[in-house]
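Retry 2 of 3 after timeout on previous attempt. Resubmitting structure tokens to design endpoint.
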């Protein structure tokens, strides 16, 4: 089973690019984030023609998440309980015996912004929610907007203490691990520096100025089945003239 997560940075603008990627990589289950469209606007017909069913938790112009699957899906959760004020950021479905959640975690903007404590509270709510779902095979994938360790940032010395790099944010990621959801990429690649997001500005991608903020987290029942995890850098580049998201997809191959 091939699992993936991808912040597409606007599905309306990126639909042809996503279809290109689906045809090339053929994932079985995909979590999408930052759709920036409502449930009614979601292009179900296009995905069905490509062989995918979809469940969505959309929002006009902002946020929005979806799960694509080649097999039937059963939705079990729309939205993070108690956190509706921060928008449509979580959807969970069961597929092929796997509980799959995709999340678009709050950005926080800066440590001095009022959204920063809201981000921390959102993560606290996420950890509490996930503790109820840590049994059996389960994955949480998405854009977490946190660099868990120094190795996950292109310049920890310069950025330490800034947004994505704070001790408080990193403690929240650790809490998710303690809830039973571990970083599948880091489990298999403990010393590899790799990034999943690069700013569009300043030639960040070509200069290697990136961050690893997109993850697939899995319970032990998933980790034991994980053969490989990789970041699909080729799809942070233009493909056939189509413009990429500022995030690359992250994929995992399960036995």
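Retry 2 succeeded. Sequence:
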């Amino acid at each position: 089973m091939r699992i993936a997560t991808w912040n597409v940075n606007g599905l309306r603008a990126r639909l042809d690019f996503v279809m290109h990627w689906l045809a090339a990589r053929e994932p079985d289950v995909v979590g999408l984030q930052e759709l920036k469209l409502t449930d009614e606007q979601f292009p179900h017909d296009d995905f069905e023609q490509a062989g995918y069913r979809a469940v969505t938790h959309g929002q006009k112009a902002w946020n929005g998440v979806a799960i694509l699957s080649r097999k039937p899906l059963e939705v079990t959760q729309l939205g993070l309980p108690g956190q509706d004020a921060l928008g449509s950021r979580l959807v969970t479905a069961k597929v092929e015996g796997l509980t799959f959640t995709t999340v678009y975690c709050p950005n926080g903007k800066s440590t001095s912004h009022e959204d920063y404590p809201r981000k921390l509270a959102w993560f606290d709510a996420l950890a509490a929610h996930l503790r109820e779902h840590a049994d059996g095979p389960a994955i949480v994938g998405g854009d977490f907007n946190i660099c868990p360790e120094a190795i996950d940032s292109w310049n920890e010395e310069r950025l330490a203490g800034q947004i994505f790099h704070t001790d408080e944010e990193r403690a929240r990621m650790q809490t998710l691990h303690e809830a039973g959801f571990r970083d599948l990429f880091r489990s298999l690649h403990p010393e590899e520096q790799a990034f999943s997001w690069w700013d569009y500005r300043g030639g960040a991608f070509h200069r290697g100025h990136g961050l690893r903020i997109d993850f697939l987290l899995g319970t032990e029942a998933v980790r034991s089945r994980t053969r490989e995890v990789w970041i699909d850098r080729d799809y942070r580049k233009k493909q056939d003239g189509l413009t990429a998201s500022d995030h690359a997809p992250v994929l995992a191959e399960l036995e």
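Attempt log closed. Helices lie at 11-25, 44-49, 115-130, 156-159, 167-178, 184-188, 204-207, 220-223.
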